[in-house]
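thread: overnight batch results

M.L. [08:02]
morning all. the overnight job finished for the chain we discussed friday. pasting input first so we're all looking at the same thing
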Amino acid sequence: MHLEGSLEPSLLFTLANRNGIALPSAADDPAFASSAALLDRYTRFTCLADFLHYYFIGMSVLVTAQDFEDLAWEYFSRACADGVEHAEVFFDPQAHTGRGVQYKTIVDGFLNACQRAERELGITTCLILCFLRHLPVEEADSSYRDAKHDLTSGRLAGIGLDSSEKEYPPGMWRSIYHDAKTLGIRRTAHAGEEGPVAYIREALEELNVQRIDHGVCLGDDDDLLRDVARRKILVTLCPISNLRLQCIKDIKDAPVRKYLNADVAFSLNSDDPAYFRSYILDNYCAVQESFNLTVQDWHQISRRAIEGSWCDDNRKATLTRKLDEVVAKYGIEK
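M.L. [08:03]
and the structure it wrote out:
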């Protein structure tokens, strides 16, 4: 889940006014006539590039540490209402440092919200720095250098790779990922969302990632599917996001059943919930309505999501105990 992707139009307009940021005029883009108009436009994305156009406009209103904290806190509050116990969230520093916002401002704001979420809501978090693949690799190198101390100290949980996938194969970032592996920094990458299954293999072989984000087309390569299952590599599926961006035509086309049958570890996620009008519980409900999963299916999905998470062993044990209590309460079908 991308924190910048939880920027609701109401907060977007509030922050734009607070910081004196000029948004596109309604004459140039009717979507910016009001929060309601922008929400309506979000229901009609035609592809990843169309979504990213609005995504980066939204980012422009984030300026101060308080802005970043307000954004993340609003998300954590919503996630708490959906029953979230632990959240591993992405952020895109390059999208902000390129506008003159200091790296420290971004991280301090987000971490303030993470600490508050644990203190007031009981939600633990991992903050993951992502590199924007549509920007030059040299800029990712600079972002990585800025963050290296936070990554090695554990202040940040790891690195990821996001944004436009087509024409930006993951191997382009191999030098950063090689260094991160050497330093013991956790690694994930978006692969197989709009790009081909070969990008998943490349992310595993050249970036040595420990997770795959999206991975919708993993099933296109049976050998790779079996290898991912054998290695217990977590795939972070985002069903409604994939539907909204037309990667799939129906939630029933999401590889949920295929991955269950193939013993692939996967989790369900909301990706950019403000833009796709789907928070985590919406994704769970959509999957249940489409696949009619059993309690045992959900137990398997949730247990493997916990196992593949980046929280510490004590937190994993607590989450597993809570999961088992829910399963014991509602029973497993025989």
